């Protein structure tokens, strides 16, 4: 049963970190029974609230009616009111998305902006006595939505029908503290309980006529499937919600197990993240393990099968998400960040150490260098300092680069030169060149340019050592 007392008990259990009298709540109010009941409860508990209403202009006069109804409700109860009027259809066409997706994006973007505005207002409030007192500290701004137990059951069924993993079957989260600070305090209460509260407290509300149509999948589940299911299983809603709660607990166990598994097989070498194929094959038939890894890099459940194919593909085969690339190279699957930019660093003067994204350069200027002391280590270069034009430039190589490899005696395209080293695509892409003017002086860690080699009579030698990230 939903009462002020049961609501408060549930609140204290679910949101122990949120104090009703020490927070500022933005209430998403449409005018329907759910949001009106939530607003009435919060107001009755003397919580500081601002009502936020979005007029999506999707139902002509009915949309205007809803806005006016919520405005009147806020006025009658002396609650601050904010409204956003938008052309949702135009937005959907402009950004090529469905009406529901557009409405959701519009709604939460505006809620976020409003919360930021209110938060700034809270932080600017002058303290009355002691600025360190809790009573005078800015109130955190939290968004409340009126999702309830029936919404939860419908969402879980939608996810199930579309295909989902464990997380999809846990339904709507009770609390979010990521992009938005959001809570859903009615999620444990049913639609029936909410309507009974409205009747007991003499609350009026508006009905959205579009809810009666089966134009959207949620409405079809609500109006057609659930009534038939509850005829056979009267407690279906409650049972679905209870199962979702048990799955949330199970999900935490699964996540811990999966994360521990990948930590054992993950390596970071020279700044490159990779997973041993042999380690991956231990769980090859288990989609839960694969999803637990790839979802962190922008991949979705529908790509699991294609990801598995990469394990047995030829060297260099890859699959992409919007942000990352999984590439087979040797006995590893490399995880490549596509947003990673190349180096373009100006070196103004000789310094003991110069740090880059993938390692460090150590500089030493030596007068009358003894050529017998030259190291054959490819990570050390000796350049004729008198031939260098400062500042130097350290940058990632490009396909148009060429240089005169020391010992070869002729010009060579850098792309062709690098192909001799059998580098993985990631290693090749990260290769840097040290430039003097428009000339390459050193392909870092590979070969110096013949034009900058030192001779017996070279007065000053610039010794450069490259220390790669490990």
- From the spread of the alpha carbons, the general shape counts as elongated
Distance between the termini: 60 Å
CATH fold topology of the largest domain: Rossmann fold
Gross CATH architecture of the largest domain:
3-Layer(aba) Sandwich
> What's the structural domain tally?
3
Number of helix segments? 14
Q: Could you name the ranges where pLDDT drops below 50 across 5 or more consecutive residues?
A: 127-135
Strand order of the largest sheet: 3-2-1-4-6-5
Q: What is the residue-mean pLDDT, rounded to a whole number?
A: 90
Total DSSP E strands: 22
Task: Report the sheet-strand fraction.
Answer: 15-25%
Radius of gyration, in Å, reads 32 Å
CATH superfamily of the largest domain: HUPs
Strand pairing plus helix content: what structural class? alpha+beta
CATH domain class name of the largest domain:
Alpha Beta
Assembly status: single chain
Summarize the main sheet: 6 strands, mixed
Could you explain how this protein is built, in words?
- The protein folds into three domains: 4-241, HUPs (Rossmann fold); 270-337; 344-468, Phenylalanyl-trna Synthetase, Chain B, domain 3 (Phenylalanyl-tRNA Synthetase, Chain B, domain 3).
- Helices cover 36% and strands 22% of the residues.
- It has 14 helices and 22 strands.
- It is elongated.
- The model is unreliable at 127-135 (pLDDT under 50).
